[in-house]
Sequence to fold (495 residues):
Amino acid sequence: MSLLCMKDICKSFNGIPVLKQVQLTIEKGEVHALLGENGAGKSTLMKILTGVYKKDSGTITIDGREVHFKSPQEAEKAGIVFIYQELNVLFDLTVEENLFMGKEITKHFGICDKKAMRRKAQEVMERMGVQIPVDAVMSDLSVGQQQMVEICKALMVDAKVLIMDEPTAALTERETETLFKVMKSLREKGVSIVYISHRMEEIFELCDRITILRDGTYIGTEEISKIDMDGVVRMMIGREIGERFPKRDAKIGDVVLKVEGLTKEKLFHNVSFEVRAGEVLGVAGLMGAGRTEIMRALFGCIARDRGSIYIDGEKVKIKNPEQAIKAGIGFITEDRKTEGLLLEKSIADNIEIVNLKAVSQKGVLSKRKEKDLVHKEIEEFRIKCFGPWHECDNLSGGNQQKVVLAKWIATNPKILILDEPTRGVDIGAKKEIYHVINQMASLGVAVIMVSSELPEVLGMSDRIMVVREGEVRGILDGKEADQEKIMTLATGGTL
Fold:
C-alpha cells in the first residue's frame, strides 16, 4: 500500500480548469520528483494536498485512509509539510522565534520555556549542519540562510511527507550539499519527500521516481533509472527542446557602459569593467561574493562611496533607480517577489508602471496604447494567464519572472542587468529567456547577466567577470573559460 495516493484530482479557477484528473502516488521513504513547466499545476496540486485549496473532485488517501484537509495546520498534524519556494518568515523576529512560531514549548500557565526552545532550536540547526546563531534576526541573514531556517522549521514537525519547492534556488553549493545529506538521512528514516525543482542534475542525483504534469494534465510516472534527461524534457514540454543554449549572432559594437573604481565599504571595492553593445557579460562568483550588491549600486539602489559610471562615453550620476531608468538601464532583480513585482497588482499594472510614457498621450493614459503594449508582451513572452488583468500573485513563479522581463524590455533599455534571471524557471521557459537575451543583444543592448549556474554563465556569455569578496578577480573570454577556471578565481586562486 502506498503512503500517499492522489487520484483523479480536478481543480478550476473562475471556470478555467488548471488540474484535470491528475494522479500522484508516493511510497514510504522515497524522494519523488514532481516536474512540469511553469504553470503546469505542480504548486496547485501540492496546495490541494496541504489544505490551502479545496479540490473540485478526486480522492486523497494517506495509509489507505481518505483525508479531507481544510487547512495547512490539519495537513501538518497528519505529517504533510510544505516548504514553500517563497519564504514564509517574519523578518523582524529571531531564528529561534521563527522556528517555534505557533509551536512554542510552554511551562506552567502557558509561559514559554525559553531554555527548552533554545536547546531544541540548536539541536535542529546542528542536525542540519547550519552555522547560524539562533538569536540572529532574520532580516540580517542572506536569502540562502533564510531558506535553511525554513527547512529547519519544517523538520521541527514529525513529518511523513515533506514537500520541497525549489529548495536549492537560493542556497550556496555548500548549503546544497548539506541539504542533500539531510534529505538522504530523512529518506533512510522512512520520510517521503516530494521534490519540485527545475534543476535536472539534482533530480537525477536525488530522486527515485518522477511524475510529470503538462498543462494541468498527468503525463506519467517513471523510475529515474529508466529515463534520461531528454526523455524527461520531451514529457514535460511535448517536444524536443534542441540546443540548451541557443547560438547568438550579435555584432559586438562600441563600449556602452564603463565602470571605474566602484566602491562601497564592506560590500565591494574598486570594481572596474566595461560592456559593449551587443555583448553579454556574465558575472560569476560564490554566494555572498558581492555580485548582486554591485548590480544594485549600478541601478542606484545602493549608494556608492566612490567610483564613476559612464554611458556612451559620458559620465552619469545615478543616485536612485529613477536616474538609472532615465539613463537607459533596466534591472531585473533576483528577488522578484518583493522588488520585481507588485504582486497584488495585475500583469497590465506591472508592465505599465515603468512604461507610463509609452502608454500615455499628452500626459493622459491611453487605453488603446496600454492594451496594445500589454497584449504584445503577454504574447511575446508566452505568459500563461487569464488575460492582462490576471493578478501576479496568482501566476506561477516562472510566469511572474516573464512579467518582470516583459516590463523592463518594454522600456527599450541601452543596458539590461539580469540578476539570476532563470531562478525557479522551468527548462522550456529558460530557453525562452535565453532567446530574449540573445534578441536584446542583437538589438545592440549591453547585457549583464549574474547567475549562480555555471553552465548558464558559460553557455550564454561573451565574457565572464568573476567576483570574490567584493573584488573583480578576473574577466575571462567566453570561448576560453571553463568551470575550473571560474571556480579557481571564485575561491581565491590565480590562473
The CA atoms of residues 355 and 401 lie 17 Å apart. The chain has two domains: 4-237, 255-490. The first strand starts at residue 4 and ends at 13. The domain at 255-490 is CATH 3.40.50.300 (Rossmann fold).
